[in-house]
Write the structure tokens for this entry.
Amino acid sequence: MTAHNAPGAARKGGAIVKNADAIVEKTDTRPCIELRDATVERGGHVIWSNGTFTIPRGTVTAIVGANGAGKTTLIDVELGLLELSRGSVRVLGAPAGANNRRIGYVPQNYMDDLDSNVTVGQSVLLGMTGTRFGLRRVTREQRADAAEAIEFVGLAGKERMRLSELSGGLRQRAAIAQALVGHPELLLLDEPLANLDLASQNAMVELFARLNREWGMTIQIVSHDLNMLLPILTGAVYLLDGHPHYSGMSDVLDSDLLTHLYGTRIEIVTTPQGDMFVTPNPAVEPEGHGTGTLAADEAASFFRRHYRDGNGTDRADSAAREERQA
């Protein structure tokens, strides 16, 4: 959806895949998100405090931390849905909430507010018409934008299918298409890989890579598992000891830091090919009590098959797997 269900997102010229205004050059160092001494409370309880960092445009950032650390809270703050008790936050050059029409948002509970009998085409149009779907006339231009978003995420030909008829991976594609019709410069995703099998996770990561690479889109992803996202991440916001921090991946991939972050011994494994992966240390961690990350050998195999050539995953193979799940 367009952030905060903002209706009627303005068309900035041309088809969405050709929308030059929404494309940010990789060398663009203007800040996308800026926090200054940010503190957020709920019910008199401090969720996190003293957040001071800047995230550049054109980056792909994971938001990581233990359960209850306030990862989704950070997204709520960036959308202006939750006020800070101290400090400031600016998003795309303006106070949080002011530029929500330039933000695409995919919540973890995407299906909760939708009738499962809604079709793919109808759900994507909701990204422009908000909760007033069916009561507001949809223009030809809006339908064209929806069609292009549907095609981009690989759902062309499934416009009339009900969401209830789709696999989890295909429903997630529909959710992302809904977020894209608003021509966002920033895409926020809350646990987009949760409850998806490995093939669907592959397809999702490929889609994020294309959005960043081809559209120059800045992306933030709340996730428990770094391994699947490592090939495309440029940095991470990590919520540690009650404070949010931002660092590039070379600093985040530190065994002591991740061990402190997750509360269990984490090792950084480097394969003979030079790839790095995050994995619980089996010599320390009792069986069945890991962090949910992929085993290092599984992650390494995935990375070599799909990312080492730098060209992204095999889209035909991913699409075939998605078709079999439908």
Summary: The chain has one domain: 3-248. Residues 225 and 293 are 5 Å apart (CA to CA). The domain at 3-248 is CATH 3.40.50.300 (Rossmann fold). The radius of gyration is 19 Å.
